[in-house]
User: Fold this.
Amino acid sequence: MLADFEKDLPSGFYNTISKKVTTMAVVGKSLQVGDAKAYDLNAIYARVIALLASDYDVDIKDVLSYELAPVPTSMFKKDGMRIAKGKSALKNSLQVEVSSRNAGDADVTVIDGSALLWTIHWPADGTVADYVTNVKKRVASYLVDSDVYLIFDRYDDYSIKSVTRDGRETGVSRTHRLSLTTKLPAQKVVLSNVENKKQLIRIICNDLTGDRLFHNRSTEKHKLVVTGEDPCPTEIKKEDISIRYDLETYHEEADIIIVQQALKCASEARRLAVVSDDTDVFVLLVHHYEEAKLKLPMKMESPSKGRAVVDIQRTVEKHRDIVKQLLPAHALSGCDTVACCFGVGKGSVVKCLRAGYKLNTIGNVDASFNDVIDQATAFMSACYGVKDAKDMSQTRLYVWGKKNGKGHTSTPNLSVLPPTREAFAENVKRAHYQAILWRILDTNDLPKLNPEDFGWKKDTSNKSLTPSAIPDVSHAINIVMVLFERQALLT
Assistant:
């Protein structure tokens, strides 16, 4: 270019300097997604806005009907699915607290074992046996006043919680071979790594069910029921050890098993306590307490001392107008298995429930998926501030227009826009599947469901499930690239 300029001097000093337009296809800045290349799509999006500002003929409705990214940015980040970090806001906004003194002593206590493990003293210089001893001491403290049902998570291959568990394993990938005599690794290394945690839970369950001295000392007055990886829990009452075939379950999630066993105990308990901090457990307890029309006092307390005690009975009574919709709304708006939408918090979810939106088809095995999509679209659109919406891509266009209202130079980030119709449908499938599992606690009543029909793909190399989220962005890329090439030619 400089050589051409010098050659035309001095007469060509004022001539226009021509420059070849270099598109992203020429530069080659792209990311391989399957068989296609995904370019720097934030740049493409910004150039669409530039074309609009120049009054060029661009159909923004057509462009925004595609995700413009390798993954739906409202529901996924570069490193994976958006997990709802603010789940506890839902519990905090709805729970009716009561003082531990006024809550009364429970005669049956159902414990979230995985949550309990984080709160028990971790002997830094000790062995696994030292930690197991501490676990037994804590369990024994509950057995003083009540029967205890201790429930641990299961870790199946091809789990729908694979993404969440992989995220927790960040920085703790090392797997140890644990036994009672092993020096205890760091707490996070054990409890955040699936393989390490599985070994620890197995050791704890074997010790709890096999320690005769512990049985004689701690279960003389009250029984202990331990649920580990086996389908049927083990009951210990002094010298009697039996298998609880009536509590058989193939559910993987401890959250579901906790509520299942709490409901089983409701018929024999005068007061019932659930020891857990988990928002999913809270939502399930509230839902099934109402569904079963229970009347007994039930409290939910943290395994950590000093935290709030929640009165489940009074919580149901206070929020009876939204209780039946709470479970599907929580699944749809983001949980451990379903992506949340950027900018849509649990506060907006409660507000829309109060406005009367219904989600009774989500988790209903007899409902058609078209009805599920219709209710989900209306609800999530309302969470974005769009009423009476029937199509998520239309909601996406409306939100873009609203956020772009100050002029075409104001470009809202792609992540704040709702997902497209197709990407949203994949997430609704996952929410529908999760809600089915939450609604049907007894696995004998659960229909045979394939997660691959509900928005997941098998990763055979890791024996896990990943959410299917990659939309076809090639058409949108082609539209923008053609427009720019035409504009370059006209210029």
About this structure: The mean pLDDT is 86. The chain is about 45% helix and 10% strand. The longest strand covers residues 108-112. The radius of gyration is 28 Å.
